[in-house]
Specification:
The complex is a heterodimer of chains A (115) and B (110). Chain A is an all-beta fold. Chain A has no helices and 11 strands. In chain A, strands 2, 4, 5, 6, 9, 10 and 11 form a 7-stranded mixed beta sheet that branches. A 4-stranded antiparallel beta sheet of chain A has the order 1-3-8-7, with no helix packed on it. In chain A, a hairpin with a 2-residue loop joins strand 5 (42-51) and strand 6. Chain B is mainly beta and 110 residues long. Chain B has strands at 4-6, 11-14, 19-25, 32-38, 45-51, 54-58, 61-66, 71-76, 85-92, 98-100, 104-109. In chain B, the strands form 2 sheets. In chain B, strands 2, 4, 5, 9, 10 and 11 form a 6-stranded mixed beta sheet that branches. In chain B, strands 1-3-8-7-6 form a 5-stranded antiparallel beta sheet, with no helix packed on it. In chain B, a hairpin with a 6-residue loop joins strand 4 and strand 5. Chain B is globular and about 40 Å long. Chain B starts with a strand and ends with a strand. In chain B, 34% of the residues are buried. The chains are: A mainly beta (115), B mainly beta (110). The interface between A and B is medium-sized, with 24 and 24 residues.
């Protein structure tokens, strides 16, 4: 089944404790992206990657890191989480950024709480 | 000013009603306009997409884009309880990132 998977689905942590949220897709997509979703603010892009070893900042990159060493994986790293990073996080992928339009496929989401 | 504005609702309608959802935007470079549906505790799923201005129909759903007014709409005919979800509009320019509205929460009452 074609899908985007994220782990963990739920995470409660404390301020300053490094964490990684994994994202994997099995559709051979070139483009992958991380979003956070907050009430009243909608989906905001954190980072995106157009291909392996190519990443760029979205609208809200502060406090986050990403890496794209393999085509299928795009982990999101919070080196020192803070309470304002409490949010619902979505990973998404699409076939290629070169095309004019690509449907984005979203993962199931990771609900993160930072105490 | 936000790139995309969407009324958050919530919107509550009886089963069978026609639902109208709307977004406005400010960036005239946007050419691709999308509507996503998001059920509770799930990721967004693409419902419809439209290129440039015009209408697109898919079953009970119709998407309209008016680029001159920078206004897009989604109409749902004969609404069903299974349509209860949050609807997000999204837009992009060629090769650029996506911008999402805040989402409108819809409840269809049986």
């Amino acid at each position: 089944e074609a899908q985007v998977t994220q782990n963990p689905r739920y995470l409660i942590t404390v301020t300053g404790k490094k964490l990684t949220v994994t994202c994997s897709q099995n559709m051979n997509h070139e483009y992958m992206s991380w979003y956070r979703q907050d009430p009243g603010l909608g989906l905001r892009q954190i980072y995106y990657s157009m291909n392996v070893e190519v990443t760029d900042k979205g609208d809200v990159p502060e406090g986050y890191k990403v890496s794209r060493k393999e085509k299928r994986n795009f982990p999101l790293i919070l080196e020192s989480p803070s309470p304002n990073q409490t949010s619902l996080y979505f990973c998404a992928s699409s076939l290629s950024f070169r095309a004019s339009y690509n449907e984005q496929f979203f993962g199931p989401g990771t609900r993160l709480t930072v105490l | 000013q936000k790139e995309v504005e969407q009324d958050p609702g919530p919107l509550s309608v009886p089963e069978g009603a026609i639902v109208s959802l709307n977004c406005t935007y400010s960036n005239s470079a946007f050419q691709y306009f999308m509507w996503y549906r998001q059920y509770s505790r799930k990721g967004p799923e693409l419902l419809m997409y439209t290129y440039s201005s015009g209408n697109k129909e898919d079953g009970r759903f119709t998407a309209q884009v008016d680029k001159s007014s920078k206004y897009i709409s989604l109409f749902i005919r004969d609404s069903q309880p299974s349509d209860s979800a949050t609807y997000l509009c999204a837009m992009s320019a060629p090769g650029n990132q996506f911008y999402f509205g805040t989402g409108t929460s819809l409840t269809v009452i049986p």
